[in-house]
Amino acid sequence: MAAIGNRGTVTEASGFNAEQDVQKLREAMKGAGTNEAALTEVLARRTIAQRQRIKEAYKQSVGKDLADDLSSELSGNFRSVVLGLLMLAPVYDAYELKSAIKGAGTEEACLIDILASRSNEEIRTITAFYKKEHGKTLEDDVCGDTSGMFQRVLVSLLTAGRDEGNKVDDAQAVLDAKDIFEAGEARWGTDEVKFLTVLCVRNTSHLLKVFDEYKKISGREIEESIKREMSGCLEDVFLAIVKCIRSKPAFFAERLYKSMKGLGTTDSVLIRIMVARAEIDMLDIKAEFKKMYGKTLYSFIKIDDIFLIHCGIRL
């Protein structure tokens, strides 16, 4: 029942007893109103694996689904966070992807955040659950809601075919850097397929070498060239891929900052990252946030008066 990562802020609760937790949850939902602090005390301080035990124990003792009961008791962002906490990681990702696709319009940022940052195994698990749950492949739904080169990048990521080894071919890295340069900065118009072929296929170590070689050739960081050569969702997805290759914690720190910066808060982004990364790498995301913005993530969320502090996703 340990956490799914070793750099999270949510860790396995000692002395865990699922039956006792079920009793606390039932008490919190009893009568008029709901004791949200009591719900938080239990659910936000247990790992995903421990919450699955709680869900099983709840169904055994009550004969009802815990998520259904909480959904009817809660509302708004608090409900979104709590229901997210009850899901297995790939289930939550699949749920977020489906929510981003269904209805009018598509939340492209969600597709990018998830597909650009997950490992091959994670993507395979997400797509398998998605097909089982919805009767359609995630690729079919993505293709139905996106188009052009942006769609092709997402489809490439969905194949979960990135090389995940550590081998760096120095000669190939130089060729890859030249191919990207000649596909963008060195020509009129941009051959986006060359960017896709390199950025969606090569392993992390190799790509870091490619980025170094690219700067030698072009005099610019590859992120700068992507911004110059592309726009819209295609620019966003290629930048996300590059940033995740460099540092996933830094990528998520930037996404959190931008979700809270300025007027209002992009709650869906804030909730998704906080819930999804809480027991994977939130410690590293916190450190990157402080390094990048000079403020703690905790203080930034407090300033924004966000329910996540109340929900106890510990920072």
From TrEMBL:
Gene Ontology molecular-function annotations:
calcium ion binding; calcium-dependent phospholipid binding; phosphatidylserine binding
| Family per similarity comment | Belongs to the annexin family.
- List the Pfam families: Annexin
The free-text domain remark for this protein reads:
A pair of annexin repeats may form one binding site for calcium and phospholipid.
Keyword Membrane among record annotations: no
SUPFAM superfamilies named among the record's database cross-references: Annexin
Q: What is this protein called?
A: Annexin
Q: Which UniProt keywords apply?
A: Annexin, Calcium, Calcium/phospholipid-binding, Repeat
Q: Which GO terms describe its biological process?
A: negative regulation of coagulation
GO CC annotations, alphabetized: cytoplasm; nucleus; plasma membrane; vesicle membrane
Q: What domain of life?
A: Eukaryota
Q: Which organism is it from?
A: Neogobius melanostomus
